[in-house]
Design goal:
By secondary structure, the chain is mostly helical. Helices cover about 50% and strands about 5% of the residues. It folds into 2 domains: about 100 residues, Fumarate Reductase Iron-sulfur Protein, Chain B, domain 2; about 130 residues, no CATH class. Bound molecules: iron/sulfur cluster (2 copies).
């Protein structure tokens, strides 16, 4: 894909319709004011737009500039012309290719595609961790009857996870489960392919983004859940 195709592939503008952001960016700086990364290592969302104006997406993808963005979306939220800055950054990152993806994200994506979670954790180990946390919870007053609903069919909510809740912050799982238990909620935790974090969104790789969404939808269909919960 060349730069011109990128510009036409991504609907970069809002009110003005698709096209080159050079025609619609006012240079007002609202995006820069809203961006939490402005000024860090020379980052400014207007530089992203400027490179887009010049059709230099590939160059943007290969530079560290594109990877300073957190993809929070605050820039385009405030943009009076609805310039799709995060779409531009995703396109640029994708064009930059796998070699430019930061190692931690690249490894997480590789693990996710292989195992269904960004840690590459086998289902058996996942089961051991969450059951261990559940057992600890039953030792607390008021939660003696807590039973972890793994792969329960027809529950109202599917509870998907950020991998850090399984890895380093599994105490936080208890807080969520306490709320669900106290509320008498009908919910379930998938016993496999439980990852809720979708790093395809950050890497710009649409096929990875789709695989992440398919994983969650697949679990909802398999267990016939009607709603989704994603605690961060
Ligand atoms: S807020 Fe929108 S119009 Fe204003 S400088 Fe940023 S991209 Fe351009
Ligand atoms: S999405 Fe990126 S460029 Fe936009 S405000 Fe967030 S960090 Fe800044």
């Amino acid at each position: 894909m060349n730069s011109t195709e990128v510009l036409s592939h991504t609907d970069l503008s809002g009110p003005g319709g698709g096209g080159n952001p050079a025609q619609i960016c006012l240079g007002c700086g609202t995006c820069a004011s809203a961006c939490p990364m402005t000024g860090i290592e020379g980052f400014d969302p207007r530089r992203i737009v400027r490179l887009g104006q010049l059709g230099r997406f590939e160059e943007l993808g290969e530079s560290s500039l594109a990877w300073l963005c957190t993809m929070c979306g605050r820039c385009q939220e405030g943009c009076p012309m609805d310039v799709r800055i995060t779409d531009m950054i995703r396109e640029a990152r994708d064009l930059g290719g796998e070699k430019t993806v930061p190692q931690a994200i690249g490894k997480g994506i590789e693990m996710f595609m292989e195992t269904g979670n960004n840690l590459g954790l086998p289902d058996e180990d996942f089961g051991f961790i969450v059951e261990d946390v559940a057992e600890e919870l039953t030792e607390e007053p008021g939660f003696e009857d807590f039973v972890l609903p793994v792969d329960k069919e027809d529950a109202r909510l599917l509870f998907t996870l950020h991998n850090k809740l399984v890895n380093t912050q599994n105490e936080d799982l208890k807080h969520w489960w306490k709320i669900l238990h106290a509320a008498g909620e009908s919910w379930t935790l998938p016993g496999s392919r439980w990852e809720g974090v979708n790093w395809g969104f950050f890497s710009g790789q649409d096929q990875v983004l789709k695989a992440g969404v398919d994983t969650i939808v697949g679990n909802m269909e398999r267990l016939r859940s009607r709603g989704l919960m994603y605690p961060e």
